[in-house]
């Protein structure tokens, strides 16, 4: 899952990004509304975590612009104002969900995951193939009943491949959706991650390489 955090308080933005990355998400951070629209113009995000009270271009304007342009991401709006009127205004601007500050980080993660499920065709809560079971909510992966020790990126790649339902997923798509903007598009990091994942999954092999196309399960 790739997330954009739009928050003008740098320390809070970096704290949120660090926590979300520990949850296995790819996170980009911007500090104002103009930069948010620049990023969404070139990157695909499942969820935009948007501070409503941005300086300059207000969060409501950012949200309305995304809707007008048909951007597919779900918007989770954050604000220090917690009155009913504020919440109604935020949701009226087009936000999919609204979370007043201060908030519990666990609730933020749960809301992001819920919104991500709504940004794509509905998936079962546990993804299964043969004797492999992956639970994104609990961050667990089992094969033949044995828990797999996966890194966050390995888990993200496996989740994307399982969610594809047999469709071939290109290395470019994996890089775009499981890594953030700091990833080098010319690197072999996807190939290396898939190789490590194959070893951890064991036999019989589950991940197929489709020549000049990508990978599938």
TrEMBL record:
DNA-binding region location: 124-217
Domain Response regulatory span(s) in chain numbering: 2-116
Keyword annotations: DNA-binding, Phosphoprotein
Superkingdom assignment: Bacteria
Domain OmpR/PhoB-type intervals: 124-217
Cross-referenced SUPFAM superfamilies: CheY-like (SSF52172)
UniProt xrefs under SMART domains: REC, Trans_reg_C
Record PTM 4-aspartylphosphate, positions in chain: 51
InterPro entries: CheY-like_superfamily, OmpR/PhoB-type_DNA-bd, Sig_transdc_resp-reg_receiver, WalR-like, WH-like_DNA-bd_sf
PANTHER family xref list: REGULATOR OF RPOS (PTHR48111), TRANSCRIPTIONAL REGULATORY PROTEIN CUTR (PTHR48111:SF36)
Name of this chain's protein: Response regulator transcription factor
Species of the source: Streptomyces chrestomyceticus
Classification of source organism: Bacteria, Bacillati, Actinomycetota, Actinomycetes, Kitasatosporales
